[in-house]
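Entry:
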Amino acid sequence: MKGPARILFVAAILTGSFLLFLVQPLVARMALPQLGGAPAVWNSAMLVYQALLLGGYAYAHAISRMPIRRQAIVHIALIAIAALTLPIALADLPPPAEGLEFLWVPLLFAATIGPVFFVVSAQAPLMQNWFAADERAGDPYWLYAASNVGSFAGLIAYPILLEPYLPLADQSLAWSAGYALLIVLVACVAAARWRALPVTETFTEGEAQERIGWKRIALWLALAAVPSGLMLSTTTHLTTDIVAMPLLWVIPLGLYLLSFTFAFSERSALGFALVRSAPLVLLLAGSLAMVSQGGGHFSGAIASVVMLFVVAVALHRRLYENRPGPARLTLFYLVMSAGGALGGLLTALVAPVVFDWVWEHPLLVLAAAALLPQQQLFGWMDRLGLQGPSRRITWLCLVLAAMLLAALMNGFVADGDDAPVLLLTLAIAVCGMLALGNRAALVAILLAMMLGRGGYDTLQTSLDGSRERSFFGIYTIRDNPIAAERTLTHGTTLHGLQHTDPQRRNEPTTYYGRDSGVGIALNAVPAIAGDGASVGVVGLGVGTLACYRKPGQEWTFFEIDPAVVEYSREGSFTYIRDCAPDADILVGDARVVLEDLPDGSFDMLVVDAFSSDAIPLHLMTAEAFAVYRAKLAPDGVLLAHISNRYLDLEPMVAALARETGMRAAIRKAPQDRLRGISASYWVALSADPASLQQVIDARDLEWTDLPAPAKTVWTDDFASILPYLEWDNVLGL
C-alpha cells in the first residue's frame, strides 16, 4: 500500500504520539505548585502514564477482532467522549495525608488526564492493526518506530516551543486543538479501511494461529520492563547522586522513546552498531551504577544517559526480533506495555519503600547485562579450541581475575587516585568482553566492577543504617571524628553540618555562617521588629538557622519532608533542641501551609527550600512572592537563598521584587572551609526601604544591587528556566 493512505496512517500515528508525550510535561507543570520538584514526583507521574498506556493497549487488543468498521465507530466515539474533559485542568483533590504522597500523586495525574490519555495511548497499536488489515500493506511494525519519533518530538517540543512562549491556559487550548486534529485524522484513516476485515482474517490459518507460549511472553515482559525501569532509575540516580540539574528529568524519557525508533527499524545501521557496542558500554558506564558520592560530575551524567540509550536500543531490538506476526500484533504490544508498567511499578512504588538508596538502578543494570544479546567476541574460544569444561574453567578464571582487579581498584578509589582506577576499569572491561557468550560470567564481572568503583562504600553505608529514603529524597548522615563534625547529605549535596565539639555545637555552618546574608539579617531582627519578633523559615534542613533565635522571639519552621523533621526531633542534629525547643515545625508544602496563616504573621521570612540545585519552581513565582509579602509585617524582610550551580536566579529575583513592590539587595558570602562555611548567595527584600537598609547596615560587609530584572516574571501559569541556565557549569566547562 502506497500513496495517500500510507501518509494518513503516518500522520495519525505521529499526531497521537506527539500529543501523548506533549501532555505529560504540561500536566506536570500544572501540578508543580502542589507537588514541588522531587524526582519521585516525576517517577510517580510516569507510573500513571504507563498504567494508562497499558489500559489503552488492552482496549486496542480487546477490539482488534471486530470488523474495522466497528472498531472505528467505537474508537471515534470514545475519543469524542473523552474530549468532553477538555481543555485540560488540574483535578481538584484535597491535599494528601502525611506519608501517602506516593499514592496521591498518581491519583492526581490519573484524575486530570486519565480519559484523554487512555484513548490517545491506544493510537499506536490500533493504527498498526488497521494498517495491517490490507494484506498489501506489508509489515506494520515500522509504524511503531514512527510513533516514537512523534513521542520524542512531543517531549522535546514542550520545553523548547511551548513552555517559553505560552501560558498554561493557552498551552491547554493548543493541546485541545491538536486533539481535534487527531479526531479528523482517525476518521480519515477509518474511511480508508472502512470495508476491511479484521487483521486476523487477512492472514493464513498458520499466521493467525501462531503459538505464543509463556516463556516467550515472559521474555517480552522482561525485555520491556528492564529498559522502562532503567529509564526511571536513571532519572532518580542522576538527580540524586550525580548532578541535580532540572532538565535532566526529561532526557532519560526522551532517549528511552528514541531507542524504539532505532530498534524497530529493520534497516537501521546505527541500531545494529549500538547493539554490538552495548556490552562494552554497559561495562564501562554500568560500573558507576553504585557510586553514591559522585560529587556532581557531569561526565557521570553523560555516561548514565548514554548507557540507558544504548542498552534500551539493544533490549528493544531483541524484543523486535522476537515479535510475532501481524495477526498477534495487539497481544505483543499489550504484553510490551505490561512490561513497561511493571518496570515503572517496581521503580516508582516498590523501590522507594523497600530500599534506602537507589538500589533499583544497579539491579536493573545487572538485569540488562543478563538480557543483552550475547555474541562471543571474535569467536576467540572457538579459535583456541576451547570446548565444554575448558570453556567453563576459562569463564571462571575471567570472573576471578575481574574480582581481584576490582578489589585492587577499590583501594585506589578510596585514595582518590584516578589514573590507576581508569586503567583497572579498562582491564576489567576486557575481562567482561572476553566473557561474552556466558550471561552469568558477564553479570558477575559487571558486579565486581560496580563494587570496585565505589559500590563497596555505598553498600557499607546501607549496612550501617546511616541512610534513609523518603518520597522526597535520599539522606545520609556521616560522622567525621577527625574534623569533629556530623553532616547530612541529600544525594551528593551537603544539606547541613553540625560540629560535634560541645564548644562549637551551636555555631552556624555551611550556607548559614554569621557573615552570610541570612546570618546578618537574623541578627538584625531585634533592631527591625523588637524583642518579640516572629520569624518563619521555609526549609528545615538540620535546623542550623535556629541558632540565631533570640530570647522572646517566636519561630516557625516549614518542612515538606517528615523524614527531615525527625533528624531534629530524634537528636541526630541538636540545633532545634538546643536553640529553639519551643519552635513550631509545620509539615507540608510551605506555600500551601503559608496561605492558611494570617497576613502579617512574620517580621522576617526565610525561604531556603531548594533540594540540591533543583529549585522548586512554584516557590519562585510571582504568586509565591505575593504570598510571602502578604505574610510579612509591613516593615518585614524576606530572605531568599539562591545559591545554585546551574541557574543564574538574580535577574528573576529582581523581576519578582519589582512585581511585588519590594526593594532588594544581595549578599555574596565567600567560602571558609576551616569553619565549615559554604559560599552562599542570599537576597534580602522588603517593601519598607528602612528595614532593608537596617539589614544592609547591620554589619560592615558588602551588599550589592541585583542586576537588571528579567523581562518576563515567572508565574504559576508561565515559566521557563532555559534563559537562566549557566551553560558552562551545566556542561562542566
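The longest helix spans residues 4-35.
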